Amino acid sequence: MARARDPHTYDRTQRGFHWLMAALILVALALGLYAAWQVPGTSPRREILDIHKSIGLTVLLLLPLRFVYRLVAGEPAYRAPPSRSAHLAARAAHWSLYALMLLLPVSGYVYSAAGGYGLPWFGVFSFPRLVPVDKALSLAGYTAHYWIAWAVGIVLALHVLAVAWHAWIRRDEVLGRMWPRRAAEG
């Protein structure tokens, strides 16, 4: 017998998108940071950046699927709705995260493509170069990518702090909506 979904939690698909993309983004950020400390043009920097790019482009491909599914599936109801200001803050944070999840891989793509670098996807194929090789454009892509990566790190840290505040200080249902307890699923 199929279990009824808790109407106060995101469904499995939305939770899957959330946690998969969170893991991909964290790994890509860590690899990008580690690669930045390696000597340009050497091994293992090239290989690390190939994996970094593959993960970033995967996030870029998953983003529209996640976004459309989120629009179709909607948001679960709250048992106790948050205040209007808390709800608006959460909306702003989520829209910021969506925008950053788009801008970070796009800026990385522009940096790599305009710089004449490869755009591999885990060694299976390479993405097409949709921008001309252009040093100024590559530098603009690099600069944007660098600062957007910092913005992602800051917004993610604030996101985690907000979730921790909800879980441990407010002791409300916010974390349980995306990471429901076993009992909540059954």
Description:
The protein has a two-stranded antiparallel sheet. With 186 residues, the chain is mostly helical. Strand 1 (120-121) and strand 2 (125-126) form a beta hairpin. 70% of the residues lie in helices and 2% in strands. Helix 1 runs antiparallel to helix 2 (45-73) and helix 3 (84-114) runs antiparallel to helix 4 (135-170). It has one domain (12-176): Transmembrane di-heme cytochromes, Chain C (Fumarate Reductase Cytochrome B subunit).
Which keywords apply here?
6 helices; 186 residues; 70% helix; elongated
Lateral arrangement of strands in the main beta sheet: 1-2
The CATH class name reads Mainly Alpha
Shape: elongated
Give the total of beta strands: 2
Whole-number average pLDDT? 92
Pick out the low-confidence regions: none
Q: Write down the domain tally.
A: 1
Order of helices and strands: HHHEEHHH
CATH-defined topology: Fumarate Reductase Cytochrome B subunit
CATH superfamily: Transmembrane di-heme cytochromes, Chain C
The share of residues in extended strands comes to: under 5%
User: What is the helix tally?
Assistant: 6
Rg of Cα set: 19 Å
Give the end-to-end Cα distance, rounded to a whole number of Å.
11 Å
Roughly how much helix do the residues carry, as a percent range? 55-70%
- Biggest sheet, open or closed, and with what strands and sense? 2 strands, antiparallel
Secondary structure class reads mainly alpha
CATH architecture classification:
Up-down Bundle
